[in-house]
Amino acid sequence: MLSIVVPTYNERDNVLSLIKEIEKNLYGQRFEIIIVDDNSPDKTWSYAAQLCSLRKVVVIRRLNMRGLASAVIDGISFSRGEYVAVMDADLQHPPEYLRNMLNIVASEHPDLVIGSRYVPGASIESWSLTRSLISRIATLLAKLLLPEVRNIKDPMSGFFVVRKELVTVNKPKLKPYGYKVLLEILVRCNPKKVIEVPYIFRSRQHGKSKLSTKVMVEYIIHLLKLSSWRPLKFAFVGALGTVINLTILYLLGLLIPQLLGRLFILGSAIAIEGSMLFNFTLHELWTFRDRRGGPMIHRLVLYHLGVLPAVLVQYITAVGLKYLLSMNPFMAQLIGIFMGFIVNYLICELGIWTKKSV
To answer: What is the pLDDT of residues 73-123, one digit of tens each?
Structure first.
């Protein structure tokens, strides 16, 4: 049996049409529809409850809870099917694609089938340039911060079929927040087999979009939580490393003043190496603590090789500013550090601390 979880909030005008479309497209298939409503002011929960006696509908009314992601997890926990489809109530996720997704489940036995807007054959109806740009940027941020989703074309999708056991077994790890529950499942449940299928993302029939500034802020917070706050930790370590770098340069200048003048090319290199060792130690013990795999010496060598482009950017910038523009050596060093920061983070995230420790 397939369970279909539909989180709702003020979707009274859509819910009956959705149920009829599901029934039409899954005729002959055993299924249940679970409406999880966060006590909608328009009484979606009450209207949906009236349909229970005539249709395969179950309604869960949550009185003191809000949030699409947590509603989906509650619905999955309550479901009876081996696989659970998750979709919105506004018909932007067309029920006619459920049959194909079920066929893939039957033939391939995946952990997850994702309805994707960004694979060949997919399209999006009636999105403005701004809305499309927001979606693309959000997807790019997810792939930048979360290694687990980099091979997924549409990790932001709200339309998918998941094996129930994958979620229930990992439920203690789940911390649903905001609207993007698929990200939560991809990162915390570690699905082994994921298949993406194209679909046409339809225009909303009734009601208003939930996208708002608040939703976008919640999304950023969710990304940071899923990444174990690594970008902020990385920035903090980088800030401390900057202090260490400049402090080493200052102390070198006290011991050998020429290292701030004609020998700055050497003084800058010594300060950079000292701060690199400091940064590596803190990343190893804190920032990427959950991603350590293999011997530490291997990561140390990788770190030096991996951040070489960032170090070269930093070093060439600092030395160039000092010798070509006669800039203050500390200011030249600081600007060089800033130029190398972003390159450094990307290399660490993508190439050094890539494996989760068990």
So the answer is: 999 999 999 999 999 999 999 999 999 999 999 999 999 999 999 999 999
Is the pTM here over 0.85, yes or no?
no
For 250, how many CA atoms within 13 A lie in the half-sphere containing its CB?
9
Q: What is the largest CA-CA distance in the chain?
A: 88
d(CA 215, CA 356): 29
Among 314, 316, 306, which Cα is nearest to 338's? 314
- Side chain identity at residue 135, one-letter code: S
Q: Are 284 and 299 in contact (CB under 8 A)?
A: yes
How far, in Å, CA of 70 to CA of 68, rounded?
A: 6
Q: What is the set of domains in the chain, with CATH numbers?
A: 2-226 (3.90.550.10), 230-352 (no CATH)
pLDDT on residue 102: 95
pLDDT reported for residue 356:
63
Whether the CB-CB separation of 40 and 62 falls below 8 Å is answered with: no
b/e 245-257 (16+ beta carbons within 10 angstroms → b): bbebbeebbeeee
